[in-house]
Specification:
About 2% of the residues have low confidence. This protein folds into 4 domains: 167 residues, Rossmann fold; 138 residues, TATA-Binding Protein (2-Layer Sandwich), CATH 3.30.310; 148 residues, no CATH class; 87 residues, Arc Repressor Mutant, subunit A. The protein is built from 25 helices and 20 strands. Helix 2 links the parallel strand 2 and strand 3. By secondary structure, the protein is an alpha+beta fold.
Length: 658
């Protein structure tokens, strides 16, 4: 099947003219892929071109490929496209184009081989210069792409158009160098200026959506929003926090041979998607389902439990097959987040996968090739937009982790719920997707769940027991832990002085002046998380580490500190400090030096006199976890080298980790 890819631009106009002079009109199809984001002049030239050629060649087929989602719908579901997450080309170009042929234009069930004539030229970009003039399977496995005018320059293109008196898109006459979507993350400042002047109404439709998303990342002022757009910061976003999942989410708990997933308000049927990787056998017993997935010589067993709004899926039998486990994870992402955009349907080489109102997999046609699973990260473009990867912050950077908390602190009721439920906390919670994401980040920083999965640590079980006897001690221990794992908390400890009061605006400026980030939003997001932490936990008011006060419309953080520190918390902080410094011989005075980053004083604001009293107490305590020399001008502290911070905590609380 011969096709001409027609976009309404100058290059495709030339290609269409050349093809029309070589191939009989009843042997090729002209396809305009309508992204729903085209310029008005593009729609105009498409209609005029169609009328012109069909007058000359009545038998010529001129088709329009269009996605099932409108551009406004997709922007709301995926978030605005960016240079990092370029979902728009797949959803609004590639997928509709292939679906038009595979499902509509061609009658046989086998996927057709399509030869597409395109107007891509080498001098358009360095990337396009590397394209082959004729390529097979580069974009789609069933497609051959022929770049007819690859080695033409722009002058030759215009000379051809004028010599043949071909239609020209008015956008070029206004000053555009290239014609494409109205708003594009790869657009130049020049094209954005021209479009803003000549196609204001069309541009504003997307700029308004973009502005609303920018507000959701805590950029509120009109001038700041305009600057964010004008400077192109939105083009560099990997994803948007404001994407509304409408309560849909997925969480994993995994070990080497086992995977547990909680799907909340899943949008698709896992059992249907599972057909793409193997033979499915199961027994349905009301809300509990037991089954197997046979994949070549491997058999995975699964239990599926249906709740009112969530599904608990437990799968075992992976062994050490990481690739197989990754396949299942991708299936689960698709089952949870699928919005029927059709992107994966275009990847299917046999026609087994059909996506309309629901996903349908024809097991007679499915070759289990995995194309629908591995065409993009996570196997689903919607999941890529909605699911935020944990542990992605590079902690070597000064500002790493300032935005990862999504403006939420480790709230008191969140921690209580976690410690009370522990094993079932991930399944049994009422948090929204962003709140749960934030909680997971805090729990990892507090060392309460494993870094590579969400399984509670042995340390969390110890704190669970301590919590019953002394809640405030648990908060002191958690504050110590996060000071070693959170750059945000470390910044607060080192750059803000006890006895002072800081407005949130002052805190943001301190971060900007220090060069933590050039983005006001980044620092502001971290400050908001701090404020929320102090307002919703004993760390703020009870420990007086950040008493939040509102004066007019401005919030202030009063950093006071306290001498009311439990000896166990002091001992714990000393051992953490010693392990960090890799030495068990310390001095009291080093904690009060300006360059000391952590330690009892930086953590709690404890006075030297009170600290020395606690040290004497710990020396006399029956376990004798340290020795001190605090007379005759000496201030030495010697810790036991046979203990670490967890063992000290166990010893002093007389508990064992179970």
């Amino acid at each position: 099947c011969f096709t001409v890819s027609f976009s309404g631009g100058k290059d495709s106009q030339v290609v269409l003219d050349i093809v029309s002079r070589v191939i009989p009109p009843d042997e090729y199809i002209v396809v305009f892929t309508d992204t729903d984001m085209e310029l008005p002049s593009t729609y105009e030239v498409v209609e005029k071109t169609k009328a012109y050629y069909q007058t000359l060649y009545p038998e010529l087929r001129f088709e329009v490929a269009k996605g099932r989602l409108s551009s406004e719908e997709s922007w709301q579901m995926f978030g605005p496209p960016s240079r990092i997450h370029r979902w728009c080309c797949t959803v609004h170009k590639t997928s509709p184009y292939m679906k038009l042929f595979n499902n509509s234009l061609l009658s046989d069930k086998k996927r057709a081989q399509i030869l597409t004539f395109e107007g891509i030229r080498a001098d358009e970009s360095a990337r396009r210069k590397t394209y082959k003039r004729i390529s097979k399977g580069e974009k789609q496995k069933n497609q051959i792409n022929a770049e007819v005018i690859k080695y033409w320059n722009v002058t030759e293109v215009f000379l051809y158009i004028f010599s043949r008196t071909l239609l020209l898109n008015d956008g070029y006459r206004y000053g555009l160098n290239r014609i494409g979507c109205c708003i594009c993350p790869f657009g130049s400042e020049w094209s954005e200026y021209i479009i803003g002047q000549k196609y204001t109404h069309t541009a504003n439709k997307y700029l308004n959506i973009l502005s609303e998303y920018i507000k959701k990342i805590n950029v509120k002022e009109t001038n700041d929003i305009c600057e964010y757009i004008a400077e192109g910061f939105w083009k560099k976003k990997p994803g948007w926090e404001g994407v509304n999942a409408n309560g849909t989410r997925i969480d994993f708990i995994s070990s080497e041979n086992f995977l547990k997933a909680v799907l909340v308000n899943p949008r698709e049927n896992f059992l249907e998607w599972a057909k793409t990787i193997g033979e499915l056998l199961y027994k349905d017993n009301k809300n509990i389902m037991h089954g197997e997935i046979k994949i070549k010589n491997e058999i995975l067993k699964f239990n599926l439990t249906k709740g009112e709004s969530q599904i608990l899926l437990e799968i075992s039998g992976f062994g050490k097959d990481i690739i197989l486990k990754n396949k299942i994870e991708r299936l689960l992402y698709k089952s949870t987040y699928c919005i029927h955009c059709g992107a994966c349907e275009a990847e299917c080489p046999t026609g087994a996968l059909r996506i309309e109102t629901f996903v349908n997999v024809d097991t007679k046609l499915c070759a289990h090739c995995g194309n629908c699973l591995f065409y993009t990260e996570k196997g689903c473009l919607a999941a890529q937009s909605l699911k935020m990867i944990l542990g992605g912050d590079n902690m070597s950077k000064k500002n790493a982790g300032f935005t990862k908390y999504k403006t939420f602190g480790l709230r008191k009721d969140w921690l209580y719920s976690f410690l009370n439920k522990l094993e079932d906390w991930l399944v049994n919670n009422s948090l929204g997707p962003i709140q749960l994401y934030s909680l997971i980040v805090w729990l990892r920083d507090a060392e309460l769940i494993e870094q590579k999965n969400k399984i509670p640590t042995k340390f969390s079980r110890l704190l669970q027991k301590i919590f019953i006897k002394n809640e405030l001690l648990v908060w002191k221990i958690i504050w110590t832990n996060i000071s070693y794992n959170s750059n945000l908390i470390r910044w607060y400890l080192t750059d803000f002085i006890f006895g002072n009061s800081y407005s949130t605006a002052e805190m943001v400026n301190i971060g900007l002046n220090k060069g933590l980030s050039s983005s006001k939003h980044t620092i502001s997001s971290g400050v908001d998380a701090l404020v929320n932490l102090f307002e919703t936990t004993p760390i703020g008011k009870d420990l007086k580490l950040g008493i939040v006060e509102k004066r007019g419309n401005t919030r202030y953080i009063n950093k006071i500190g306290t001498d009311d520190i439990h000896p166990i918390a002091v001992a714990y902080s000393l051992y953490r400090y010693a392990e960090d410094k890799k030495r068990y011989y310390l001095t009291v005075s080093e904690f009060y030096k300006e360059d000391c980053m952590v330690g009892p004083y930086k953590l709690f604001g404890i006075s030297r006199e009170r600290l020395e009293d606690i040290l004497r107490y710990l020396q006399e305590e029956k376990n004798s976890v340290l020795k001190v020399e605090l007379t005759k001008g000496l201030d030495n502290i010697k810790l036991r080298e046979d203990l670490d911070h967890i063992e000290v905590l166990k010893l002093l609380t007389q508990e064992k980790i179970i």
